[in-house]
Amino acid sequence: MEGTKPVNKKLAAALSGGAVLVLALSGCGSSGNSGNDKLNSWAKQVCDAVKPQAQKIEDANAAIQKQTSDNSTPDAVQKTDAQAFQDMSDAYKAIGTAVDNAGPPDVEGGKTKQANAVKELQGISTSYAALKTQVAKLDTKDQAKFAEGLKGIATQLGKLSQSGSDALKQLEEGDVGKAMAQQESCKSASASGSAGAANG
Question: Which residues of 115-147 are buried (b: 16+ CB within 10 A; e: fewer)?
Fold first, then answer.
């Protein structure tokens, strides 16, 4: 069983990077209110929608982390990873929809920032769906092949977690980030996220 364990650890490490994405979205910015009611209500709508999705991503991440510490069979690893990628794909899609539904934030260039963030979130969702398909096709009967396949997925995950958050960062710059930092649902999402990371 040695073959898949180190590789799945690599997968878990790459995944942790991906989870940071949403926590960036939900735990953003310094506090200090912009005093813009329109922007605050936009932030509340987005934060309230992000919170359960951030939790879903945390849970998926935790499931993969757990498989790295157990002496799991390739079948169990495959099943857990495929489900986790599906959950992440759904969560990013839901966040994209939430940002889309909220409309542009009431800041300069808000429409462009919103459109870019939605596009990015949908792209991330699609990437996780593709990883799910990939992991589901791996040959669990052949230990070495399975480990090799997981290694490829871990590499892609690493790239995904690095490339994914530029538009989100831009969306959260300045007043938008401040307004989001005021929201209870964003505060608790980032708090539970960092606690999860610390315990993981």
Answer: ebbbebbbbbbebbbebbebbeebebeeeeebb
